Structures are given as structure tokens and as C-alpha cells.
Amino acid sequence: MENILSGVKPTGQLTLGNYIGALRNFPKYQNGEDHVFVFIADLHALTLPIEPETLYNNTRDIVAFYLACGLDPTKASIFLQSQVPAHSELATILGNYAYMGEMSRMTQFKEKSSKLNEKKIGLGLFTYPVLMAADIILYDAKKVPVGEDQKQHVELARDLVIRFNHQYKQDVFVLPEPVISTSGARIMSLSDPTKKMSKSDANGDIFLKDDPAVARKKIMRAVTDLGSEVKYDKENKPGISNLLVIYSSLKEISIEEAEKEFEGLRYGDFKKAVADVVCAKLEELQTKYKEVIESGIIDKVLEKGAKEASLIANETLKRVKKVIGLYGAK
Ligand code: TRP
Hints:
The chain is mostly helical. The protein has 13 helices and 5 strands. The radius of gyration is 21 Å and the shape is globular. Tryptophan (TRP) is lined by residues 5, 7-9, 41, 44, 132, 135-136, 144, 146, 150.
């Protein structure tokens, strides 16, 4: 049995891209051999300015939609990063093993800090990957499913593990590996299908909380391509290809099967069919989301998750403290 760890930053509302790329696979993961730890990286959300209310509501919504998508709190541990203090503690320790040079070379740091006033780049943004390494290391996770944009951070965690184990001449930490999700993982924006559908971009994104009528309009207005054939061709037909991925993922059929369905039909007919499956899915998820919110189970789920997570996280922390010579550690 292994531990699988999945983290999400509550900086925006969940999109259809998140659902297809990650959420819909949770039930599959939790029913396997491995134990699944799913957490909300709420401390990471603080690395860029965020309104307290936005952070609060996003966090609640993500947990609610996770449960709505079938994540089962009796099988998986669902928790908040901020409710398991071991994350912050290990990050404080690990920070001493990470180098300024490698941290300043992190793509995400360079990208995000370049958009900020130079005098107002937070230290938390700089040390972001150290906290993320702590998240991963605490659970002895071997496989870490992440998007392409987070691969470099998992690789930094690997480097820290190797460095640490080497320095203390023992296998204190387990070596993690990024698992990049492939099919359906890259749902693109409807208004610019060369860009990813992201949590924080209102145009061209379908949010799981969108009114189905609004979602339908977005799809009907989605950018398509020259030509008239409904064919998967990422290079020349990025818009149609994106809609084909959405359609086939939600219907659980292959792209080829989807192409066959729309042979000889026009873009408009195809879009209508895409809108139908998307709206049906949104309605289904929103009904369950409402049930979850009204049932008031969220706090209980998080409390249970934090307890389960702390059990293993504190064990790892104890191991580290002992190895590095912190006197109180037994
Ligand atoms: N940084 C990740 C993101 O922005 C979220 C995250 C934080 C994470 N800690 C993690 C993902 C640990 C996997 C493992 O998407």
C-alpha cells in the first residue's frame, strides 16, 4: 500500500477542467489499494493577495464539490493544510536545506513575482516550493499527481529528499515522483483554446458553480476553427478539439467514437450536444453540492481528515527531528 497525495490551492472556483482532469478520478483512486490524502493548500493560497472571504468560501466550496464528486471521507482523508501544523513545522526545518539559488530559479516564482511590484514580493511566494515539499514528504508519498505546471516543484521536493538523506546518511524521507495526468487533464479555455481553463479566469471558463444556462451560452459562443468537420486536430482545430475532449470525457467514450457521432453534422449541432452533456453534469454536481452544504458535514469531514493526516505527519516530523538532533525529539 502506498500513499497518494493530492493538493489544491483554494485561489479560485473549481472549473470543468478541474472536474475532468482531477475530481472525477477521485472515486477510482480511493477504491484502490492505496490510501488517498486530499488536502486544500490554504496556506499556499496566502502567497498572493487574496480576500479573506474569497479564501474562506473557495475552501468550503472545494470540499463540498469534492464530496459531491464522490470522494468518500470514510475511505480518503480530506483535510486543510492549515489544520495540520506539521506542514508548517516541516517547512521551517526544510527551509534550511533549500538554497536561495535554486529557489530563485523556480519558474512559478519567476512568473508570479514578475507580475508584482518588486518591493512587494512576499517571502511566502519565494518559499512556496519548500512548503509544498513538506506537504509531500510528510506522507511518504511516492506518487504525486500534479499538473504539468507543478512538476518542477515536485522535482525540487525530490532534490531536497536526496540532499537530506545523503547528509544524514539514512533514508529519512521517501523519494516522491510527479505523476502528470494526461487524458482530459488539459481542458482549454473556451475563448482561447490555446490557453488552459484556469480557476481564476472568468472568460472562457466553465465553473462548477455556473448556472447551467450561463454555461450553455459560453459553449455556444466558444471559439471554433476554420473548416466544418468535427475532427480532433489539436494543431489546426484547437477549439473543436477542446470541445471533443470535454464531450468524450463526460460521456466516457473515446475521441474517435465522439467524432463518429458528429460525422456530417455542423459545428452548431455539435456545440449543442456538448452543451447538453455539460449542463446535465453541472446540474447533477450542483444538486449534490447543495445537499453537502445543507447537511453541515464539512466541518466533521475536515476534523476527521486532519486527525488522520496528523497521525502520519507527526510520525514523519518526529523522525526528522530526531535525525537532525532536536533535543526534545524521542
Ligand atoms: N502547488 C499546487 C498547485 O498550485 C498545490 C499543492 C500544494 C500541491 N501542495 C501540494 C499539490 C502537494 C500536490 C502536492 O496546484
